[in-house]
Amino acid sequence: MNATRIENAADRKDRPAGAKWASSWTAAMQGPAPAGVPAALPDQSFALPGYSARNQTFRMVIRPDLWGRMVRLRFSNAYGDRPIKLGAVRVALHAGSGALVPGTAARAKFAAADNISIPCGSEILSDPIELPFVDRPSDAALIGRKLAVSFHVEGETGPLTWHAKAMTTSYISPRDSGVLSKDESDAAFPYTTTAWHFLDGLDVAAPNDATVVAALGDSITDGTFATLNGDDRWSDRLSRRLHAAYGDQVSVVNVGIGGNQVVGPATYPPPFNGGPSALGRLERDILSRAGITHVIWVEGVNDFGQAFAPAGTPSATAQAVIEGLRTGSKRMQEAGIKVIAGTLPPSLNATREVYGAPETDARRREVNAFIRTSDIFDGMVDFEAATMDAATGEFKAEFQPDSTLGGPPDLLHPNRAGYLAMGDAVELSMLAPRGYD
User: Beta partners for 211?
Assistant: First the structure.
């Protein structure tokens, strides 16, 4: 399909002349905390007792995939039970730990105000923010650098909207410590988290022909068994390859959620930990994001292996997942987004109950056969072929040990080496910006 991306309201809002807003970093929200599948999450009882914040400052560390002088932020209160009040929002170059590079902070406003109240179930975009330290998006000194987004929460937040598995360390000031966004040192931020709270997007003013690729999926996209702070999910590896080929005309963002399913659960929030179904979150995490041109979608094994299935039996048929992929792909393609399907990596003999069952493996293979032969997608990536040992039907041995925590493999998630292989399996020409076709 060659449909043109349909511009939505988020794309048009305050769009710079001759450019478009493009997603440069994203986090798919879930919750309320602690619902989710975090990785290496520190004890939160001191920073966020009861998983609620009160009169304190967050410093969320993010890595933009595409740089620009003009940016904007998106905050979410998707799973709160009351409006949350944010203020003193600052964006600065991250120096390391909880510290900022001196003199780089830029203030964010919301409809020209310093503070914003975000209603329950809503997302809010900031006004455009000028980053004084960005002269050229192609500046090699910015490659791999991170931003620190600091903001103060007023009063008691109640249930926290978060992305549980950030695979990145961020920082939180003590409860009742007040407004500390301007503090450039790390002394005021003694507590750490490996989740992203409230902040769920960074857009950048980019060339109109920029390609924006969204990685949509479950824990294998979210980065389970990757390296904490290593930026080595398969989408990160793909990003580095694309930038090497096409420079600053591409952006890759990740909207994976650990435990996510294509068609389930029927309702969300919890007790389910994997976020709303992919079909249920397409509008929020794909269609309302700025500038997305392509989606790589690899998902389905959790539909077969999720916790509410009767013991020892897959919970969804292959046909149910296939129909979900059909439905979701059609919705995205009707919005002008090209959809590239990824085959499901192996799960045979996984240590987690029904995930490793032969019945699950048979359903996974049936979905993969559909992906390989269907003409409904705009492209295909064979992640199974890139990661599976054909002799055993399992992940290749070198792709198994956990890269962050060590210990035995679960035969369900690849490690750093496996994610690099997945990122290398993507044919770059499918994602080329206009003019490279």
Answer: 250
